[in-house]
Design brief:
This protein has 13 helices and 7 strands. The protein is mainly α and 346 residues long. It has a 3-stranded parallel β-sheet. Strands 4-5 form a two-stranded parallel ribbon. The two termini are 30 Å apart. Bound molecules: adenosine-5'-diphosphate and tryptophan (TRP).
């Protein structure tokens, strides 16, 4: 039986947070343990070059992310773990694929426009080419399933378009890759606004945070009086209503986010109980937040212990990385050869 392939990656831009863990790594773990799939997980170190970065930090992070993967439970016996740039075919393949993509299409992507706003001085060719390189990462293994957060959907759409074009123009048989969704496909920010992201200070909890740090961060989630009504998922505090019950001020997203975190870490049932309490006797946020901080730490503690163990064994990590890099290069070279032939380069 030919197994379906899975490919995912995370940019080497810093330490991982709960958004990365739920949006990407949980899905990677699920598919790694499913015998129907062959799984490849990389550090997207080439993608790090698309925005300003520090050379020494990149050198460290491209190794640290692999350690995070291993600590979180990715298993080199089951998955190929590798560094994108150590397989020279990714950049080569991205060039072939770039010949079926227009500049206009890339300029109109919302993810490109966001980065242009963020770094107006660094609108480089590498940045414009980001989605093409990502399509190359996926298609070079003919992967069909991609465990990433929902924010990556515009990039997956580009990968599907490129697959269709290549299949039409050159008779290749690339599958159209789909996001593999997890329950945490969108983890909200601790600030109450937007998604958890390493580029927004105060929005995230790192996988390496200790209990005290987690407590302090959770304590900052904005809340309300603790008692009110829930209308279509919106939490409206009593203190926000004048006597006649009409809503006077905007509801707090913080409470909604807090409850979503409760659901992620304590389950649907616990959230239901607390939702009922909010609408009945009222909540004491200090208790809810404490319960949440402990549940998060409980999930992270084994990951942190495993990380410590790996840090103490650098040779083991080095050997896992070099074996993974080698395997990924061998697999990719088969598809590259096929495409070079079909495009007239062999
Ligand atoms: P960041 O936004 O912190 O820079 P990345 O862009 O490096 O995160 O994302 C790496 C992976 O983690 C991607 O698959 C992305 O979809 C996922 N991810 C990042 N933030 C979140 C989030 N808040 N919720 C769900 N998934 C996320
Ligand atoms: N764009 C992804 C992110 O921001 C990282 C990435 C690069 C990726 N290449 C990939 C994800 C291929 C999945 C598949 O996190």
């Amino acid at each position: 039986m030919n197994k379906k392939r899975v490919l995912s990656g995370i940019r080497a831009t810093g330490r991982l947070h709960l958004g990365n863990y739920f949006g990407a790594i949980k899905g990677m773990l699920t598919l790694q343990d499913d015998p129907e799939f062959e799984t490849l997980y990389m550090v997207a170190d080439l993608h790090t070059l698309t925005t300003p970065y520090q050379v020494e930090e990149l050198r460290q992070n491209r190794r640290e992310i692999i350690i995070d993967y291993l600590a979180a439970g990715l298993d080199p016996e089951k998955s190929i773990l590798f560094q994108q740039s150590a397989n020279p075919h990714h950049a080569e393949f991205a060039f072939y694929l770039s010949s079926v993509v227009t500049i206009a299409k890339m300029q109109h992507l919302p993810t490109f426009k966001d980065k242009v706003k963020q770094y107006p001085q660094y609108v480089t060719m590498a940045l414009l080419n980001y989605p093409v390189l990502m399509a190359a990462d996926i298609l070079i293994y003919k992967a069909s399933d991609v465990p990433v957060g929902i924010d990556q959907e515009p990039h997956l759409e580009v990968a599907r378009e490129i697959a269709r074009r290549m299949n039409q123009d050159y008779g290749t048989d690339f599958p159209e890759p789909q996001i593999f969704k997890t329950i945490g496909e969108y983890v909200s920010s601790l600030t109450g606004e937007g998604k958890m992201s390493k580029s927004v200070e105060g929005s995230y909890i790192n996988l390496t945070d200790d209990l005290e740090t987690i407590r302090k961060k959770i304590a900052k989630i904005p809340t309300d009086s603790g008692k009110g009504i829930i209308d279509k998922g919106v939490y409206i505090s009593r203190s926000a209503m004048p006597n006649n019950g009409v809503v006077a001020i905007a509801p707090s997203n913080g409470v909604k986010n807090l409850m979503e975190f409760i659901e992620l870490f304590k389950g649907k049932e616990r959230r239901k109980e607390l939702d009922n309490q909010y609408q009945d006797v009222g909540l004491r946020y200090s208790e809810v937040k404490n319960e949440l901080a402990e549940a998060i730490y409980q999930e992270l503690q084994p990951i942190q212990e495993k990380r410590q163990e790996l840090e103490n064994n650098p040779q083991k990590v080095d050997s896992i990385i070099s074996v993974g890099n080698e395997k990924a290069t061998v697999l990719a070279s088969e598809v590259v050869k096929e495409v070079r032939e079909k495009m007239g380069l062999l």
